[in-house]
Amino acid sequence: MSLKSKLLASLLLLLAVLGSGIAFIQQTVVIPKVEAFEIDALREDLERIKYGLDRELTHMRRMATDWAQWDDTYDFVVSRTPEYVESALGGDAMEQLSMDMLLITQDEKLVTYQSTRALSSLREPLVSTLLRGPESRLLNEGGQGLIATPAGVMLVAANPILTTEGEGPSRGTLYFGQLIDADLTKQLRPPQIHAIFLRLDSTPPGPDDIQLLPGSDSVSKTWVPLLNDPDRSLQIELQQGRPFLDSMRAYTYYIMGTIFVLGILGSVVTYVLLKHYLLSPIEQLQHNMQSFSTSHSLADIPTTKSSDEIGQLTRSFREMATRISDNHISMLHRQQQLKEQSLTDPLTRLGNRRYLDSRLQQAEFAKKHPYIATFSTDIDHFKQVNDRYGHDNGDKVLREFAEVLQGCCRDDDCVARVGGEEFTAVCGISSIQDASEIAERIRVRTEQKGFVDGKIDLTCSVGFIVIPGHELDTNMETWSRVMKVADLALYEAKESGRNRWVGWRNPLHAEKTIAALPASAEELRQAVQKEALVAIN
Ligand SMILES: Nc1nc2c(ncn2[C@@H]2O[C@H](COP(=O)(O)OP(=O)(O)OP(=O)(O)O)[C@@H](O)[C@H]2O)c(=O)[nH]1
């Protein structure tokens, strides 16, 4: 995986961690907090409804007090004058009072019952409900409360009938009653609530029940006790939306979106900066190192002025590469030297046997000449030079003889010292005659040389063989046979008196000389007898 891929993967991982972190915080911290807040707010809404009911009851109670401590009411209970009913309670008095019922009792007996038209038919059950028990509780508990009636739950306020000064004895009790109907419910409903239900519930009052539904709705319920029925209650149910959650979600998505966009922008900027300051220089350095590893050229590692770690790394690498390059150059130089040394005779600076072999194995060498003459030569009685003039002078003689030999050959001929005082020259020639001329040149120049500043006169013997160039190949076995014959020719020259040359060639009609080459003096003799080899004169 490349550095670039790793960097991209890291940035994507960072974004994923960021997104997951935000979602985790939303789920574990923000939403629970919002829900707790919502529950508090819903509880407050329920309390507000209850407070609305209380306020309405207080208002009714105040009205009941006014009416019950009114002298006309007092007189009415005492004298039962029908004028009171006509003047105070007649017509649409109930509608004007916004009450559903007015009841006056005395000694638990009905004095008068006034109601809206809707409740007129329920006179008996309502009166009996009120007279059956709640009266004392009603008065004990402040003169107001909720009562279950056959018509539904009713807000009831009561006050003893007294004089205007509030003096007794009480002549009875005055009740105001108001059914919890659609109008009252509407009046109690706060504006943000979708739906409100106030209904008689067949269970006793219990703790508030607040449910936050998965969507965007909530249902909250509370129960208010009834004065006349402990086993039942007034259930208040509110259905409404969850504006806090919606706002929180909207804000969270806004924040998440913003963080995500900023994260992407940050990642892009980070990627661009890291690519510019880190990845590209590293890639460049890697590319340079690869190029250097194949070329060993310092040009592949440009200099840098950057002072950061990558700049320092590049400089360190350049220093290391400089040392490697220097070592490489000196190693190549040394290799070349060793190669030259391994192919050069240290005394005469001519090529040695290995040099001769490597030259002869080159395909072009023989092929580009019509004939190849292979000479084998050495100095006559060289042992005596060492014996008489010393080994150092013997060495000098060998060096000077090497120069003579080189001077008799062309530059592209192959001249080598193959043994102590034995030399081989392989020369490309265009006619057989050239070979005898070279041999004679070697002989004459040696004879005339005057070795070691003219102090030593010497002669040499030369043996050679001429082979058509096209017959020779790069096989060393072939060349060994050729050189062997040249050695035999040299031997012949020595045997026949020294300071002379002996050379052979193939008969002109022979197609293959190489195959017929002799391997010993005996074979040579036979080859000459059979005219497989012809002496050159
Ligand atoms: N100074 C010196 N002498 C060498 C070197 N290599 C070989 N020799 C001597 O060369 C001499 C060769 O002697 P021989 O092989 O008997 O032949 P020769 O004396 O030249 O006699 P012919 O070749 O038969 O004429 C030996 O004495 C070797 O010690 C060398 O590198 N330096």
Written overview of the protein:
The protein is α+β, with helices and mostly antiparallel strands. The chain has three domains: 4-241, LuxQ periplasmic domain, N-terminal subdomain (Beta-Lactamase); 296-341; 353-536, Alpha-Beta Plaits. The chain has helices at 3-68, 71-79, 82-89, 93-97, 117-120, 123-131, 134-140, 182-188, 243-295, 309-343, 353-360, 363-367, 382-408, 432-449, 451-454, 476-495, 521-529; strands spanning 101-106, 109-115, 144-149, 152-160, 173-179, 195-201, 209-212, 217-226, 229-241, 371-379, 414-417, 422-429, 460-468, 501-505, 534-536. The chain has a six-stranded mixed β-sheet, sandwiched between helices. It is rod-shaped and about 190 Å long. Bound molecules: guanosine-5'-triphosphate. Guanosine-5'-triphosphate is lined by residues 347, 378-383, 386, 391, 394-395, 398, 420-421, 494, 498.
